[in-house]
Specification:
By secondary structure, this protein is of the alpha+beta class. The chain has eleven helices and ten strands. It starts with 6 loop residues before the first helix and ends with a helix. Bound molecules: flavin-adenine dinucleotide.
Amino acid sequence: MDFTLTDEQKMLRDTARRFAENELAPIAANVDLDSDVPASVIRKMAELGFMGIVFPERYGGFELGEVGYCLVQEELSRACASTAVVLGGHVSIGAMAIYLAGTDEQRERFLPALTSGDRLAAFALTEPGAGSDAAAMRTTAREDGDEFVLNGQKTFITNGGIADVYSIFARTDEGRGVRGISTFIVEQDTPGFRAGPPEKKMGIRGSHTTDLFLEDVRVPKENLLGTRGQGFKVAMRTLDVGRLSLGAQCLGAAKQALDLSIRHATQREQFGGAIARLQAVQFMLAEMAADVYAMENIVYRTAQMCDNGDPFGREAAIVKLFCSEALNRVVDRAVQIHGGMGYMAEYPIERFYRDARITRIFEGTNEIQRIVIARDLLKKKMY
Ligand SMILES: Cc1cc2nc3c(=O)[nH]c(=O)nc-3n(C[C@H](O)[C@H](O)[C@H](O)COP(=O)(O)OP(=O)(O)OC[C@H]3O[C@@H](n4cnc5c(N)ncnc54)[C@H](O)[C@@H]3O)c2cc1C
């Protein structure tokens, strides 16, 4: 595989790196403390084109593919996981569901305002009684003349309350199992639709996570995304993309945790010299580097598969599983290398440690990724 970046991709990476270093890193601790990614940061990402990197030009995007998008997510995640998650909720799952499932007319109607960042998107699949078992959802969409009427509750929705456009999954046909689920666009100001208060979280605190309540929410039939009954497929295809770019977020965070650990190990002195001279510390750094190198390779290899139009569902699950577990190993070692300082909120590594934990849970838990991978292996009866 050729991992050489094009000039355009290098420029995009450098832009994201400058933004992350100059504008995100200095405020990341406050984003965490205030539990809010400021609207100005979201606006700036829109100005830099980050909201539209992956989408075709005809919908206002830049057509820089998943490789381009992963480069941006990697850089943002070196500075502020919360900001990367806000962008991910918008691009990789919220707007992506519209792109993957929408008709041309629906794409033209909704995507330009999302790729420009004028409006923010969210993706609402999970419910209080339907997490890993998404097909158990109870939100319904009943046909009524030229409209669908939605009732139900979604939970743990990224960008809840701040998004303008929601890709929402609901049951249109009782008794048809996963084939009875459809996807709808619900705009934030639709009567009967409201978000709950933001959840208080262990990490990625700057991203808003809320419940969504739908009480007799009427949407025109034109807001049914794509084909009735295809919603579960839409959710799974969207999550493949989400899982891949989550890998890039894990990679960026892991690289930063490793760099901070190298710096600390070379500066901190104990027993008459830098702790970096101790083999126990060197071995931890080496293990971290091995994880980072493997993450980097599988993220960009899978992003290329996606951009080439090759199937990448199993690989996306592997990326999500491996990168999230690797990141958790890396940040754990990073805290260890930092000693007591690693446990103090004053130093960024404490935030990286908290932020990392969610990556093993959302976009499908790692247990679910193992199921996806094993099912695919057994279906094809070979690697
Ligand atoms: C911060 C945050 C942001 C989120 N953002 C979004 C979002 O934007 N949109 C959205 O739709 N959802 C979102 N989610 C929801 C997230 O995807 C779910 O939390 C996740 O899929 C797990 O569902 P659950 O929490 O109900 O856990 P459960 O499904 O209750 O799982 C609990 C445990 O049981 C295990 N388990 C369950 N079933 C199996 C099985 N068959 N085999 C083995 N183990 C199993 C799980 O792996 C887990 O360890 C978000 C969640 C969080 C915490």
